[in-house]
Amino acid sequence: MPIRFDFQGRKVILTGAAGAMGNRILQGYIEAGARVFATDREGPAFDAIEGPSDQLFKLPCDLADVDAIRTTMRAALEWLGGCDVLANVAGYMPIRPPMELEEEDWNVVLNVNLLAPYFCIQETIEALKASGTGRIVSFASIAGKMGGIGPNLTYSAAKAGLLAMTFNLARELAKTGVTINTIQPGPADTGLHFQSPPEMLVNAEKAHPMGRLTTPEDVWHTVLFLTSEEAAHINGEAVDVNGGFWTD
Prior knowledge:
Elements: E1 11-15, H1 20-31, E2 35-39, H2 44-47, E3 56-58, H3 66-80, E4 85-88, H4 103-131, E5 135-139, H5 143-146, H6 153-173, E6 179-185, H7 198-207, H8 216-226, E7 238-241
Helix pairs in contact: 1-8, 3-4, 4-6
């Protein structure tokens, strides 16, 4: 029997809504009755996002720009009238030889994968506290635990930082009623690896115990569960959803 979630009346802010993973999560929230403010960078994929006008509002945002994040989060709080759930799904993973990185290579990856979740949290935290059942979930990566599966040093380091930030904030926010957790998908063919060598995902699939890559269908239920009212006592967790590709 399919899992049924009830998010009627819940107010959700979702970044990374235009990617395959983010879009499936978005549809899951809408199907469950939530009102969703969706953001991602401008482009055809973002323009193609659809949903009922009374449940979905979308506004593009450059998540590498802190001022743009602040403006977008404030617009989200205004449209929603508060916030119950913040889902930081956006990610960016360029491929560069590890010993040939320039300062800018680090800056953009850290901005999108680490600083953007932080400033989204900073701008929404008072509304999440006021919710009484505020939930934050961020997409980290098994790369943050084991260093990645290719020449993606900056991404792996940023995701490791996101894990540490989550563990710290979980303790800081525990008494407020706000929980914060992360999800680590396995290697997935969702567009994030668009700069990867073609053999990178092929080799990951061959090495996978299940013989296949992670899909958005594997992940979205876990996102909704961790941000549901029922998950009130799950806090500071790094939940692997990767079919056994990485175990700890």
